[in-house]
Amino acid sequence: MNLVGTLNEFVGHYNQWIVIFLMVAGLYVVVARGNMIKKLIGLSLFQTSVYLLYISPGKLLGGTAPIIAEGFTVYSDPLPHVLILTAIVVGVATLALGLALVVRINEAYGTIEEDEIFSRNDQD
Amino acid sequence: MLALVDQLPPLLVIVPLFGAILAALARKGPIAWGIAQIVAVAVLLIAAALLVQVYYVDTISYRIGGWAPEIGIEYRVDRINAPILLLVAAIAAAIVPFAFRSVAAELPEERQAWFYAMFLLCLTGLLGIAITGDAFNAFVFLEISSLSTYTLIALGRNRRALVAAYQYLIVGTIGATFYVIGVGLLYIMTGTLNLGLIAERIAEIESARPVLAALAFIIVGISLKLALFPLHLWLPNAYAYAPSFATIFLAATATKVAVYLLARYIFGVFGIGFISSALPVNQVLLLLSTVAIVVAALVAVYEDNVKRMLAYSSVGQIGYIILGLAMATASGVTGGYLHILAHGITKGALFAAVGAAVFRNGGSARLGDFAGIGRRMPLTMTAFVIAGLSLVGIPGTVGFLSKWYLVLGAIELGWWWLAAIIVLSSLLAILYLGRVVEVAFFREPVAATARAAEAPPSMLLTLGLLTAATVVFGLRTDLLAGSARAAAAALLGTAP
Question: Which of residues 192-221 of B touch A (CB under 8 A)?
Answer without folding.
Answer: 193
